[in-house]
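Data availability (excerpt). The following record was deposited with the supplementary files.
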Amino acid sequence: IALIVGFWFIGKEVIQTVGTNLAKMHPSSVFTAELAAASVAMLASLMGLPVSSTHILVGAILGIGLVNRNANWAMM
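Predicted structure:
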């Protein structure tokens, strides 16, 4: 229930922050970030390591922002 309530009140801001404010990305870059995050999460799962897919995805987005030199460090 807490997850639903939290998403109801701040979900839009979180989606906007991760989706647009961390780094400006092209659709192909978004696909790359998703693929990298899924690969890391699957590998960690196979190794029995507990990981957060959210943290992995934010790291992938920030990594692409670093490569493209448009990461928003103030937001991070």
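Summary of structural features: The first helix runs from residue 2 to 21.
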